[in-house]
Specification:
CATH superfamily: Response regulator
Number of domains: 1
Structural class: alpha/beta
Distance between the termini: 36 Å
Number of helices: 5
CATH architecture: 3-Layer(aba) Sandwich
Strand content: 15-25%
CATH class: Alpha Beta
Radius of gyration: 14 Å
Shape: globular
CATH topology: Rossmann fold
Number of strands: 4
Helix content: 40-55%
Order of helices and strands: HEHEHEHEH
Strand order of the largest sheet: 2-1-3-4
Length: 106
């Protein structure tokens, strides 16, 4: 329980952009994220995520990789053009190592 309190204390003032195209996963995950972060902004694809990112400052961007319109890697490339120091976390249900290597190199 102490670890959860520590995590909450660290994350309670953070604004997070969460980009996930699977709406069921997005809904279930956002329930937990909203308990820890001050503000959670949701997007359903990379294009929407980039648009939202351009209008607000985020402490963390959490994104899926494979999405319609713009994938998470391309979105993060564009975000890093705006803010090279942006912290990002990548989530994926896929085991394709090629996508993960692109994300790590990016």
């Amino acid at each position: 329980m102490n670890n959860v309190k520590n995590l909450y204390n660290i994350s309670k003032d953070l604004c997070v952009l969460y980009v996930e195209d699977d709406l069921d996963i997005q809904e279930r995950t956002s329930i937990y994220f909203s308990k820890f972060f001050k503000e959670l902004v949701l997007a359903s694809d990379g294009e929407e995520g980039l648009s939202l990112y351009s209008s607000k400052d985020f402490d963390i961007v959490i994104t899926d990789i494979l999405m319609p319109k713009m994938d998470g890697i391309k979105m993060l490339e564009e975000i890093h053009k705006i803010n090279p120091n942006q912290i990002a976390l990548i989530t994926t249900a896929h085991t394709d190592s090629e996508h993960m290597l692109c994300a790590i190199k990016g």
